[in-house]
Design brief:
By secondary structure, this protein is of the alpha+beta class. It contains ten helices and ten strands.
Length: 478
């Protein structure tokens, strides 16, 4: 080997190293990888999960409504002009500064079981929202599986088209040699060259379908075009599944117990029933307990500090006698009672029980009951619609799986027969016993049968995957 050849080889290896390295770094995605990525990153699922958090907060709030309330209030006021002092309960025409402080608490003892029914309704709403998330995850998982299988189908169509084109190109080369040798007429070469052009177009179409299938899956996974994305190509074999041996009703009976869409519909009906009971609770009396504690301060509350000219009965009480009026009289000196003393002396407490009996409220209770009853009936109808839709989907998938299996078996025999026929026709074409038209016809019929076989295989695999998924089996092609 010359030095020039060795150097050329080394340069090619150096140039190819980044490409090889990049190929090694390419991530190959299995069906499980695609499904998991979609479930973790799909924005609609994340948005649906936020709805779960809202429902959880609603439940916590309804549970907290069983507890008593406690509120503190404080105010600081300057009053001008004639006013009734809330502390002294006297009229004043001067500027008066007042402070008010209070604590109040209340608790509902009975309200027609509305508090309890609110808790139960919000608990059903939370469960329904969680099952709605699971329903969306199931829908996206099936969509990913369908798109993944579409890629596998498109890949096989590309391989088949490439193989057919390669066979035709070999015949073009052979026919060209025979035409040059004068064994065949030039028309035979033109005919098979036209077949070559047709199959090149078929290959381009198949490659475009493969790109479209990849694009659809990448969009489901929220991947960008610049991501080096390639799916794993497992060996997909058509193996008759025991699932299709069950009747659609048997599959539905199992699916109805575990499918989140059905369970969510049941939870929504239960929530509507509790909503109706809440509305009915509006007809009952409400019994509650309340309590409060308040105090205050006012500049208008005064006390005597000098009582020289007071009646003798006030003797010895200087500094402790409160003035009845704010103005100072001859011989009487007053001062504002200190803040601390007023807060202590003005303190008052109260506790009470209230009973509210609804007699007539403009038919609001009756209207609420009627509306919630209509909503309840609508929820029941919606549940039945979801159940019917699930059964129809299972029934259709079951029928499609049976039809695809029968079509596959029939097409498989047809392909075997056409392969033998094509080999015989090709041998006869090679010795000049068959013209190009007959050869192309046999080849096209074989190609169409092979395409039909692939379609039947992947149709069956997908439908069986759907049926298995509905009875609780994970999505997998292994």
């Amino acid at each position: 080997m010359s030095m020039k050849t060795i150097m050329t080889g080394l340069i090619l290896m150096i140039l190819m190293f980044p490409v090889l390295g990049g190929a090694q770094e390419r991530t190959v995605w299995s069906l499980e990888d695609c499904v998991n990525h979609a479930l973790e990153n799909n924005l609609r699922i994340q948005q649906q999960k936020l709805g779960v958090e809202v429902a959880r907060e609603n439940l916590q709030q309804s549970q907290a409504n069983r507890l008593p309330s406690l509120n503190a209030n404080a105010s600081h006021n300057y009053n001008y002009g004639r006013m009734l002092d809330p502390i002294t309960n006297e009229f004043s025409t001067e500027r008066v500064q007042t402070n008010n402080f209070s604590l109040s608490s209340g608790m509902t003892l009975f309200s027609g079981f509305q508090v309890r029914n609110n808790i139960e309704r919000d608990r059903f709403d939370l469960l329904a929202s969680e099952y709605d998330v699971a329903t969306m995850e199931n829908d996206i998982s099936l969509a990913v599986a369908s798109s993944y299988l579409q890629i596998l189908f498109a890949r096989e169509m590309v391989e088949m088209a490439a193989n057919q084109l390669e066979i035709t190109r070999q015949q073009v080369d052979r026919t060209a040699k025979l035409v040059d040798a004068g064994t065949l007429a030039r028309g035979s070469l033109l005919t098979i060259q036209a077949q070559e052009a047709t199959e090149e177009l078929q290959l381009v179409n198949a490659e475009n379908q493969l790109r479209i299938a990849y694009l659809e899956l990448m969009q489901l996974l929220d991947l960008r075009e610049d991501v080096d994305f390639e799916v794993e190509v497992p060996e997909v074999e058509l193996i008759p599944s025991e699932t299709i041996q069950f009747s659609p009703m048997q599959i539905f009976d199992t699916a109805a117990q575990i499918q989140p869409s059905i369970i969510s519909a049941d939870m929504q009906v239960a929530s509507a029933e509790k909503t109706h009971e809440i509305a009915r609770g509006g007809r009952y009396p409400r019994l509650g307990l309340s309590g409060s504690m308040a105090t205050g301060y006012s500049e208008a509350r005064l006390r005597v500090v000098d009582a020289n000219d007071l009646d003798p009965k006030y003797a010895g009480q200087t500094g402790s006698v409160e003035a009845l009026f704010a103005p100072k009289f001859a011989g009487i000196e007053t001062e504002v009672i200190p803040f601390r003393d007023q807060i202590d002396k003005n303190l008052n407490r109260s506790i009470g029980v209230f009973l509210q009996i609804p007699i007539f409220n403009n038919l609001q209770v009756r209207s609420n009951m009627n509306r919630t009853q209509i909503s309840l009936e609508n929820s029941r109808l919606q549940r039945q619609i979801i159940r019917d839709q699930l059964y129809k989907t299972i029934e259709q998938a079951h029928q499609d799986a049976h039809a695809a299996l029968q079509r596959y078996r029939a097409t498989e025999k047809n392909v075997q027969a056409l392969e033998e026929s094509f080999r015989y026709t090709e041998q006869r074409f090679n010795v000049g016993m068959v013209n190009t038209i007959e050869y192309n016809d046999a080849k096209n019929r074989l190609s169409a049968a092979q395409s039909e076989l692939l379609q039947a295989k992947y149709e069956y695999v997908f439908r069986v995957t759907v049926l298995d998924f509905y009875i609780g089996r994970p999505i997998s092609l292994r």
